[in-house]
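sorry for the late reply, my laptop died twice this morning and i had to redo everyting from scratch. anyway the thing you sent over, i finally got around to it. pasting the sequence first so we're on the same page, its 156 residues, then the predicted structure underneath. double check i copied it right bc i was rushing
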Amino acid sequence: MIILQKPGGPHLEIESLLIDYEGTLAIDGRVHPKAKDKINLLSKRINIYILAKGEKEKVEERLKNVKAEVLFLQEGETTRQKLELLKKVGPERALAIGNGLDDGPLLEEAGFSICVIGQEGASGKALQKADLIVTDIIHGLDFILKPLRQKATLGQ
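ok and here's the structure:
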């Protein structure tokens, strides 16, 4: 479990992390080795779900040593499927990371959410719904791993 203090609210006990794959975790289909390492560190404390809609074989190959459950979503159904997973794990105990238009509702409903404005950009809807904005997935994962960064950004 990871404890986060959301501004103006109670401490959040995070048990699950939902990460969008395309454009958030993977840039041009590639996942940075440091991001893999950070996910593996986080997997010792919380459940990790990577939400992908790309080619299954390629995604699985790129995530073969990552300790996370990879879920493949259907095109046109991604928003609904992401929200269903969030409901299943418990929104109040979940942290979501995304960047796309289909991530907006997920970011809004999760207990805490991070929008990544990476090389592929981010949708305006995702930006509006997130609790935190970062410029790189590694920065987002470090925010979760390093409580001093949480205090610096979310402290009042």
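The mean pLDDT is 91.
thats about all i looked at so far, will dig more tmrw
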